[in-house]
Write a structure and sequence with these properties.
The chain has eight helices and ten strands. By secondary structure, the chain is α/β, with parallel strands linked by helices. The strands form two sheets. It has an eight-stranded parallel beta sheet. It is globular and about 45 Å long. The two termini are 19 Å apart. It catalyses: N-(5-phospho-beta-D-ribosyl)anthranilate = 1-(2-carboxyphenylamino)-1-deoxy-D-ribulose 5-phosphate. Belongs to the TrpF family. It is an enzyme of class 5 (isomerase). Pathway: Amino-acid biosynthesis; L-tryptophan biosynthesis; L-tryptophan from chorismate: step 3/5.
Amino acid sequence: MVLDVKICGLKTPEAVTAALDGGATHIGFIFFPKSPRHLAPAQAARLREAARGRAKVVAVTVDTDDVALDEIVAQLNPDMLQLHGHETPERVRDVKARYGLPVMKAFAVREALDLAAITPYRGIADRFLFDARPPKGAELPGGNGIAFDWALLDALDADVDYMLSGGLNAGNIAEALLKTKAPGIDVSSGVERAPGEKDVRLIEEFFQAIARADEKSSSRPCLNMTERKR
């Protein structure tokens, strides 16, 4: 089994290339005007061409209405939608039916009770993403560069498919994988030199850190850098 790795909030061809060459299984484009990673659908559509046949393209939105989603889906032609707001189970179901695409629903985590919030979404959302609850007053629901207590994930049922996000970087990804056995990981601010500015070197270092973690734990299903390198 291959570890899913999503590099999110991409804005430049150089960053997309670094993510794909590193072995990303998913790349994410953010459509949220308050975010420094926000793109117009036409911009993202141009960037996504490099990913065809190499990685899944994820459109990340926050409480977005159908009009805006229609434009995003029509122009980007994503492989998956990520809903990172306060979307209800009914909204997730409607979005899946409207576009015929799998949906990943994001949840903010600070304490054990936060994980219980996924219950009504099980069987509706195709995957979950667990991110740290943003600081008080923060405008962004994710990409804030903070982590939560990974031990909380020990309480999850074994069949819950998710991506781990929040404060991941080359310095802590090995520990994160060891402690959580997460089937997927998502990084954004951890490979940036400034908010919204991806750093090719940091992306490369992130994948190198994953490879080192894989070498240290042959029993850990992880990214095969040799096979995935293009």
